[in-house]
Specification:
- By secondary structure, this protein is mostly helical.
- Helices cover 50% and strands 2% of the residues.
- Strands 1-2 form a two-stranded antiparallel sheet.
- Helix 1 (9-19) packs across helix 2 (25-38), helix 2 (25-38) crosses helix 6 and helix 5 (99-107) packs antiparallel against helix 6.
- The protein is globular.
- The N and C termini lie far apart (48 Å).
Length: 197
């Protein structure tokens, strides 16, 4: 998806990528709505996960964590969502379900947001602007996340690298053949003669 809905979009895109979910408007609207519903200020932790990582500190009495980096925040969110209790959320994201359907999946899990994300998303679908609170500590202008800015498998990245490798192999072989190097190798190593003509 090329349209950027907010400056913090790379953080949300990284979560989707690491979950194996597509970066679509449906999925981004869901994540923004969920973030707006959560609204807390834990560092690098927009959805208030309690997943523990090295260096994390406790933000509140519910043991929500502050993380030491944006990448830690992404990793903790993904690891939490990969728990079987949240499989319905991940399935909805992988299917790029409508944001209200994914919010309904969230409401059916133990995550503390309940129905509030669905209410925020209903507002988005009715034309309200995104008003998700900024992610505490995150500066998208100076912080890069794993995989950010790279072509991803499934969006052309694999095809590009395979194409480049194929071109390099073809032109490299042609250069070696035309320069006589392969013919000389074929003279020294008879099994290579079939490659050198």
């Amino acid at each position: 998806m090329s349209e950027k809905l907010t400056a913090e979009q790379p953080f949300y895109e990284a979560i989707l990528r690491d979950l194996g979910a597509p970066v679509t408007k449906n999925n981004l609207l869901y994540l923004y709505g969920w973030r707006q519903a959560e609204g807390a200020s834990a560092r690098f932790n927009p959805f208030n996960t309690t997943y523990d990582l090295p260096g994390a500190t406790i933000y509140n009495t519910h043991k929500v964590k502050n993380y030491v980096s944006a990448q830690d925040g992404v990793d903790a969110t993904v690891k939490t969502l990969q728990h079987s209790r949240y499989a319905t959320i991940v399935s909805a994201l992988k299917a790029s379900a409508s944001p209200d359907q994914t919010a309904a999946a969230l409401a059916g899990t133990p995550w503390g947001t309940g129905q509030l994300a669905g209410k925020v998303i209903a507002g988005y679908l009715a034309g309200a602007s995104i008003r998700a609170k900024p992610i505490a500590g995150y500066d998208p202008a100076t912080m890069k996340l794993r995989g950010e800015g790279m072509l991803q498998a499934g969006t052309g990245g694999s095809i590009l690298w395979i194409g480049l490798a194929g071109m390099a192999a073809y032109y490299g072989f042609t250069y070696l053949r035309d320069g006589g190097y392969l013919r000389r190798l074929g003279q020294r190593f008879p099994r290579l003669r079939r490659l050198t003509g």
